[in-house]
UniProtKB/TrEMBL annotation:
Annotated organism of origin: Geomonas limicola
Keywords assigned: ATP-binding, Kinase, Membrane, Nucleotide-binding, Phosphoprotein, Transferase, Transmembrane, Transmembrane helix, Two-component regulatory system
Top-rank EC class of the record's enzyme: transferase
Residue ranges of every copy of the Response regulatory domain listed in the record: 584-700
UniProt entry tagged with the keyword Protease: no
Domain PAS intervals: 79-132
Transmembrane segments: 20-40
Name recorded for this polypeptide: histidine kinase
Amino acid sequence: MPPLKMNNLSFPSPVRTIAILLVVLFAIETTIMYLLPWLVPIRNPYLENLADATLLTALFTPILYRKVFHPFRRVAAMQKSLTDRILAGVVDGVIIFDEAGTIHAFNAAAEAIFGYPADQLPGGKLRGLLDPVQFAAVLGTGTVPRPGKGTATLEATGRHRNGTPLALEVSLSQVDWNGSRMWFAIIRDISARKEGEEQMKHALSLLNATLESTADGIIVRDLTGRSVIANRRFAEMWRIPEDLLASGDDRIMRDYVLDQLKDPHHFLEITEQQRREPQQESMDILAFRDGRVFERVATPQVVEGNIVGRVINFRDITEQKNLENQLRHAQKMEALGTLAGGVAHDFNNILTVIMGYCNLTAQQLDRDTPVRQNLNQIMAASERAAALTNSLLAYSRKQAITPRPLDLNQCVHKVEKFLARLIGEQIELVARLGAERITVFADSTQLEQVLMNLAANARDAMERRGCLIISTGRIHIDQEFVRMHGYGKPGDFAVLSVSDTGSGMNEAVREKIFEPFFTTKEMGHGTGLGLSIVYGIVKQHNGYINVYSEPGHGTTFNIYLPVCGEPEATPAPDLEAIIGGTETILLAEDDLSVRSLVRSVLAAQGYRVIEAADGAEAVALFREHEEEIDLAILDVVMPKLNGRETYNEILARKPRTRAIFISGYTADIMDKNGLADHGLHLVNKPLLPSQLLSKIREVLQAS
């Protein structure tokens, strides 16, 4: 576009104009001086001078108008026209007013802003358009420069003719006009911009409130990797100081948090990949040294179709992972327990036959016969096998227990001397028992077994030199404890801790130590059942166990048991001699070998035995011999009808019939079949003849 030319607005040259006027004036005056006496012969000097001046004025005035007044008037008119056009075409309002606030100029844009025509302004004053307080502030502002020294911009509030408030931006400058100081104001309506700013402010406030209310940590980075925004939860999760977060320097923040991570190299690798590929979504898991686990999800930030950065979301999944690990561990242990319990059940039947016949044969032989020694070896091996079976049952939590209120400190005192002998003189035993009485609902024998197994395990870990510390105390488990550890339930618990100064263990070993038959010892130096038995006993007591260990820093087992009321004194049982009888006994056992053994033992003691291979046959035989049968011996697990169902059928016909239940799968089966809470009699497999006969006489005499 060519530049605007304004040559027609230029004034005549003052020097040239004055020179012409002087020459013309001189020429006219000279001409009049010589021609006037010839043209007007007047002898009066006063009249001659008057005529001279009149002619001079008449002749010089047109020339003066032509050379001076006409050009200046024309330029002024053109300037006014140009000014009016400029003011009319300016999109911003223009107002010129004096010190009193009286408006002298008011363009069309100003009329549109305020809704007033220029000739209808209220009082012709600026205070009718602007807020009075702000009007005074505008006139009294010290920021407005002196005339010709620039402008000052400020914001003010105005009012439209219809009463609508206006947000205005006012650019003020001062000019000298005809010796008076005038104010020149360029006014812009910024109501829409202000409304947009308010909307943006509200949106940002809403966004900030949303970010701060979420439970996840969120950070937004631009394409250069610089942090744009992050919520408070992000700083809390990563434990980043506020001043460091405010810096927005992502590299400094990364360096600050690297020590918290188990695998910082993986973290940096994924972070760098996210920076290189901003369009890709990614998800990974971050493991911390203190046990926390975060899920990181990174997605591209898209604005108007363009990727401008990345939004990274961090979620604390520590509790979820702990629960998953706990569930997975519980499922694995439950499966192993079911397998162990099933093996123990079948093995107990075999041991019952072996030990029973050995016992019967030994009773039939003289004490001095060499064969008796062989039977004693068989019995000893069978007892060891029975102990192994009991260990499997303890792990699978299918072993019957007799819990009662127990003083935990007394239990530790009771077994302390035995533990000292077990670990040897080279290992120091330290008992740090709580000052207050701690009562738990537990089986004392089982609890002692837990201590012995842990002590034996610690002894081997310390290679018979070091310190074993047993301590007791109380702890209140709250929801935060459950969330961080992934187990337990809120309440008061007793804590039994067993610590050693041994070699410790790594993470891989620690995860497997409670599995049956897992051992780090050499072949022949352990069954791998010690800690699995401890685990089973603790779980059977509705407790929890965890282990803390690092290679070279020893191991600590913490056992949490629910506390209960004070223990009650229990009378010691009376021992009676085992004798036989002549009563009739219904024997129901699905294992032929066990049934044959029990029949032989009972028959040898004078009892009459009626045999049944399953529950249905036992019910049928009871109906035939209802009046004769004095006692029923029922296996808990049988085909067709189990022990409880069989006993219910018998009670329906003869309510006062006594029964003894036998099983190698006792605790779980009794609970499922409703036997545990009814005071019914139970004998565990493997059965010894003396044990069974003693229980039979006890039940028959009680009836």
